[in-house]
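Chain A, query sequence.
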Amino acid sequence: MPHGTHSADARIARLRETMAARDVDLVALAPGAHMHWLLGWHPHPDERATFVLVGREAAAVVVPSVNAEDMRAHADLPCFTWKDEDGPGRALAEALDACGAGPGDRLSLDETARADAALALLRALGSLDCGFASETVGALRAIKDADEIAALRRSAAVADAALLAGLDAMRPGMSERAVAAAIRDEFARNGVSGSFTLVAGGPNGAFPHHSTGDRALREGDAVVIDLGGPLAHFASDMTRMAILGDGPQGYAEVHAIVEEAVLAAMAAARPGVAAKAVDAAARGVIEKAGYGEFFVHRTGHGLGLEVHEPPYLTATSETILEPGMVFSIEPGIYLPGRFGIRLEDIVVLEEDGPRVLSALPRAVRRIG
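Chain A, predicted structure.
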């Protein structure tokens, strides 16, 4: 099936190269982002065991009979079907045999597979030599092709529009939830369902993963707005700041420190650099300013078909950054009882450094 500039056959060929390099005999993908990357489609994940199995020489699909027609329309692979009254055991065994897989083979298993389906597969394979598909398919997904990057740019543009809709609607007295609704409405107008929005006003901003609630925004608040959503399956994610009136005391100083941390991380992000070096660059700025204990999360995460995927920019990540990787840079400072500031951009890593997807500046928006 076509997916970007690649067919499923081409992606399977690339996957087999990675399998050979990593001494993997079989890859098993469940419905989700890994399968979508391979086929350009995946069925809705439910309790019925479904796998795309890729061996060194052959590939097959295990699918419940109720989903078989849909699967055949999207995957030009042998389908081994099973009915509810029979269970997936025989279909799994037949598919594994078709792939030339058996006991002693090293399996790369989709880390998002349901435990019951995964256990059934392991029993049918008769092997416990198992790693995760993050090491095979995940490694390939981490490097985006030109079509994927174009899709992520389009998704980022919709996120920009949603952020502006929230800022334009924001007024003192509005609840966090009402601002989030304005953002979700703009996402929906642009064809995005399943968007997420965090709106955290005043002291709520000191909680990095605050659950948007009914607190009314007040004059003097700093407001964290973190949002994103999938456009044609490709995610977006960004965080910007607003202040109502003059904002809280000390806001400008802290915002400037976080912005300096963003710029330091951008300068450190280069092909061949370890992800932990980017985290260290951002963290070093914040620690030097005396706010190290208030930067309580990693500097970034990858983004693509999922909003959080490799690479992860943590203090310990040895992942070597490569051109085509797409990830967030999002340092923050969170002051309990006062306010929080996070500035987040998604970047595409190019040969000469990162290029930001959003067209919106990171400067704070003043309301009123």
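The chain has two domains: 2-141, 146-367. Residues 1-5 have pLDDT under 50 and may be disordered.
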